[in-house]
Amino acid sequence: MITISLCMIVRNEEEVLAQCLESVSDLCDEIIIVDTGSTDKTEKIAKEFTEHIFHFEWIDDFAAARNYAFEQATKDYILWLDADDILLPDDRQKMKDLKGSLSSDVDAVAMLYHLAFDEENKPTFSSRRHRLVKKDRHFKWHGPVHEYLEVGGHIIESDIAIKHNKTSKQTHHEQNDRNIKIYEKRLEKGEEFSPRDLFYFANELKDHARFENAIAYYAQFLQSKKGWVEDEIRACLSIAECYKHLNIEESELEALILTMKFDTPRPEVACKIGDIYKEKNDFNKAIFWYQLATTLEEPTHFNFKDESYTTWYPHIQLCYCYWQNGDEKQSYFHHCKAKEFRPNDSRVNHNELFFKEYYIK
Q: Which residue intervals define the domain Glycosyltransferase 2-like in the entry (predicted)?
């Protein structure tokens, strides 16, 4: 059986750290906690789970902190988590099984990362991360912010899922502001941004409602022609989102159409184009794009997956559009399809009540 070092970097995580460690502590042979400047009870909580607590002077570099944490590990494999991540019972068992069966020739294990959830706490948006890596391969983190772990060799994919439990944390402002400040300090120093930097800085600008600036940096990223195709598509989608906030509909539509330069239409793109026409009461065009979304699938290599646009969302919009077009049969059909996917959704329940009252009359 392999041995595992859990490596974490933390700062002011008293709200969530205990539940994270409780969910994995018995699965790990060593817990490494690197504190980057907590002023709350984070360190006290960490001491309840491990004596291996280290301090790292914050230098505006997440990769440096994570690499320092990895350097402290002594076991065969390193598992990394953030403080607001947890393993649910089924995934704990899967992790236990993996630990007992993993071949020593495996260099890294990619796991699911559930980031958003519906009203029944089922994941609606997920990605994949290399979560478990072999210690003696000396894999390194790169990037001061939105860092990534560069891995290679024999990599396997697991259905183990880490849940991002962000709703349990009430104080987000410090961390959110910290990211964008790191980028701005780098710009002030005259540092040249890589295509990846341009993309993630644009994301930060968008999240801070600085939409014009975000569009400019997304454009620089696309002009570099050196980004991953999925990031290029995501950049176009984000540009469209920015233009939507700015109420510039024509540019929003152009940005969505631009995604098709990089690949075939994605379900999310089709739905968002449908949304534009729906808002204009052009229901025939809206129906075309929503129907298209129901026939599309996300590529198997896609790192991020939002199931909404391939399941309930186009159907609930088709329900509305067909009704507006006077096609009651198709409207009800798509209501039933949406209900299959999200039986407890408030919008679905509203439509259910409407149809019951309508047909009784």
A: 5-103
Residue type, 21: L
d(CA 200, CA 153): 27
- Encode 201-215: b = buried (16+ Cβ within 10 Å), e = exposed: bbbbbbeeebbebbb
Q: pTM of the full predicted structure?
A: 0.89
The percentage of residues in the chain with a pLDDT greater than 70, rounded to a whole number, is 95
Among the listed residues 94, 116, 102, 108, the one whose alpha carbon sits nearest the alpha carbon of residue 160: 94
The four Cα atoms 217, 219, 221, 223 give a dihedral, to 10 degrees, of -140
User: Packing angle between helix 229-245 and helix 249-258, nearest 10 degrees?
Assistant: 170
* Contact between 79 and 91 (Cβ < 8 Å): no
3-state secondary structure of 34: strand
Report d(CA 73, CA 75) in Å as an integer. 6
Mean pLDDT (whole number) for 282-310: 86
Beta bridge partners of 80: 7
Q: What is the Cα–Cα distance from 17 to 10, expressed in whole angstroms?
A: 8
CB atoms within 10 A of CB 138: 10
Q: Are 301 and 344 in contact (CB under 8 A)?
A: no
pLDDT for 171 equals 57
Of 68, 61, 72, nearest in space to 30 by CA? 72
Neighbours of 33 (CB within 10 A): 27
Q: What is the residue whose two structure tokens read 């198997």?
A: 300
Structure tokens at 244: 């939507």
125 vs 329, more confident: 329
Mutual orientation of helices 346-360 and 328-341 as an angle, nearest 10°? 140
Give the torsion through C-alpha atoms of 17, 18, 24, 28, to 10 deg.
80
Residue 333 burial (10 A CB sphere; 0-12, 13-18, 19+): middle
Are the beta carbons of 160 and 91 closer than 8 angstroms?
A: yes
Phi-psi domain of 274 (left: phi exceeds 0; alpha: psi -120 through 50; beta: other): alpha
Q: Are strands 4-10 and 77-80 parallel, antiparallel or unpaired?
A: parallel
pLDDT digits (tens, 9 = 90+) for 209-267: 999 999 999 999 999 999 999 999 999 999 999 999 999 999 999 999 999 999 999 99
